[in-house]
Each structure stands twice: as C-alpha cells, then as structure tokens.
Amino acid sequence: MSSETGPHENVSDENLPSAQEPGHGAVARKDDPFADPGLPPHEPRIQDIDEKAARRSERAVAFMFTLSMLATVAFIASYVAFPIDKIIFVWPLGHVSALNLALGLTLGIALFCIGAGAVHWARTLMSDEEMIDERHTVAAEPAVREQVLADFKQGAKESAMGRRKLIRNTMFGAVALVPLSGVVLLRDMGPLPEDKLRHTAWAKGKLLVNENTNEPLRPEDIAVGSLTFARPEGLEHHDEDFQQEIAKAALMLVRIEPKDIKDKRELDWSHDGIVAYSKVCTHVGCPVSLYEQQTHHVLCPCHQSTFDLSDGARVLFGPAGHPLPQLNISVNKDGYLEAQGDFAEPVGPAFWERG
C-alpha cells in the first residue's frame, strides 16, 4: 500500500478549522478575544460593612416612603381645597389651573418617592452579589426547584424585609395610600346624584304651561282625544338649566271620558278626564309622543314601547319595564290647571327598583 498522502500530505495546524467555525465544537482557543472573562470580584458596599451607613440608608428610604404618604394626603386635600375655576400665574408656565397644578405636583411626588425609595433600598441594602445559574429546561428537576426556593428564601432574608421594619412599614403605608388618589378622581365623573333623580321641577301649586303657546292651561284648552305638551311654571327656555330640567319635567296631557278611565288612582289624580303623565319613556328616556285616541294608547317611537293611558299608563308592549309616572293635577281658584306635587315615582329609566 502506497504511503503517499496525495493532495493532503502538507496539512499543518494552521490549516485546521477554528473552533469558532460552524459545525465544530464550542471549545474556545487560548487566544480567543471573545472568551468569557467571568464575573469580577465582588466589592462590598459601605452599607455591607458599616451598620451606621446601613441605618442612614434605611432612614433615607423610610423618608421617601413617608414623603409619598404626605404627598398623597396633599393630593386629596388639594382636590377639596382648590375650586375648579381658580386660575393662578406660575412662571414659566403662565396662567394655569391651580387645581390641576396641585394635583399634578402632589401625585407626581407621591409616585416618584415610591419609586426612588424602592431603587435606593435595592441599591444600598438588598444583596448585590451577581450569581451565575446555567440555563435549564422548563421542567426543572426536583433538586433545581429546591435550589430556587432556597435562593428565594436567601434573597428574602438578605433584603432585610423582616429585620428593617421601618422601611417595610413606611413602604406599605405609601403603597396603600397612593391608590386613594385614583379613588378621589372618580369624583370628577359627575356630581353626586343624591336624591335629584327622584325630583323634578314640578311642585304643589305650579301651573301647567302649554309648550306651544307659553300660556297657562285651562281645562277648556284640552279637547277630548287631543294630546298636549306642558312644562312647569317658572321653567323658561332661556334658563341655563332648561334642557336639564325639561328632560325630567316634560309632561303630556290627554283628555279621556271619565267613564273610560279604568284605574282608580288615575281617576282621582285627574280633572274632568284630563290626565297628566311623564313624557319620558321608562325604557331609555325617549320622548313618548304618538297617541292613538280610539284606544288611548301612547307609543314611544324609539323602541315601540306602548302604554295604556286609560289604565294607569301600564306597559302593553315593548321593552319598557314600568308605567309612565302620573302627575296629580287639579284646577286652582282662577281656573288654571296646576300640579298637586311632584311625580310619585322617578321619571324615565332612572331606577329598576322604585320602592
């Protein structure tokens, strides 16, 4: 057998493939400039060797958390103290809302102090040693899980959460108070309704004013089978809150032969067959306006809820859940129709339970 090596007889070490080339092992050469240098030696911080320095850091962190709590209290106090229309001049911002400025500053300080306190705590008092852990499969071995739990417990111990109670308590206080800022801001969703949904502009002695003529109504102004719209005396179109008030106080009147009225209370609250009901549908608040004089039915054009005005305005058809509220009316000494009070129930879709 020939000893010739052919074209490969002059192969040398310089021609061997590098460990960095694809398809070869990951063993790095001694002169590899990208070799992992490893972690540098750990240098202890002053807080690690000097308890006085650690105490100073603890007080600094607690101060930031306490400042956050005070800023949250100031946020709530500013919301109450500053009127929404108060404008002040602040250089270089110019003229700004005092309320918005106070809320922004106090909430910013509250959030910043929580973050700054947490960062200072981590950098000065928590463990800062870097640890190397080889990658492993998602389904860790029992020994690995035990090691992770042990590392977690060790980290919790080194964080000094249990030992440094001043930091722990002030942090809990700051984190617990900050959400109150958001709760307070819910107040801006609108004014508190209180009992406003239960009352309208109608009251005892208020005249019924014709919406078309702007004149007080007399019984003779309303013919049998007719439909008339009215508003309470004193509510004028040029009033600033007219739309808000008429949305609840809009009234419709029809005249029915007394013998055709089936509901006793309806008959007692009417005058000579003239009955007055809220014009606001109890489904979603659309204006009820389509009247059928032969059947005494009134129809809401939005979703076809149908009410029987000869039987307490009870619902005959459609999605409305309640009868239309009735207004108790009578005639005063001057011969004008007037209200005997407000509606007995809230108008429109204000409540599902109206007891």
From TrEMBL:
- What broad taxonomic lineage does this protein's source fall under? Bacteria, Bacillati, Actinomycetota, Actinomycetes, Kitasatosporales
Q: Which cofactor does it need?
A: [2Fe-2S] cluster
Q: Which PANTHER family match?
A: CYTOCHROME B-C1 COMPLEX SUBUNIT RIESKE, MITOCHONDRIAL (PTHR10134)
Q: What does this protein do?
A: Iron-sulfur subunit of the cytochrome bc1 complex, an essential component of the respiratory electron transport chain required for ATP synthesis. The bc1 complex catalyzes the oxidation of menaquinol and the reduction of cytochrome c in the respiratory chain. The bc1 complex operates through a Q-cycle mechanism that couples electron transfer to generation of the proton gradient that drives ATP synthesis.
Q: Which residues cross the membrane?
A: 60-82, 102-122, 166-186
Where's it found, cell-wise?
Answer: Cell membrane
Basic and acidic residues bias spans? 1-11
Which protein are we looking at? Cytochrome bc1 complex Rieske iron-sulfur subunit
Recorded hits in CDD domains, A to Z, give: Rieske (cd03467)
Membrane topology per record: Multi-pass membrane protein
Provide this UniProt record's keywords sorted from A to Z.
2Fe-2S, Cell membrane, Disulfide bond, Electron transport, Iron, Iron-sulfur, Membrane, Metal-binding, Oxidoreductase, Respiratory chain, Transmembrane, Transmembrane helix, Transport
Task: Please state every residue range assigned to the domain named Rieske.
Answer: 267-338
- Mention any Pfam family matching this sequence: QcrA_N
Q: Where is this region: Disordered?
A: 1-47
Q: Which organism is it from?
A: Streptomyces iconiensis
Q: Which family does it belong to?
A: Belongs to the Rieske iron-sulfur protein family.
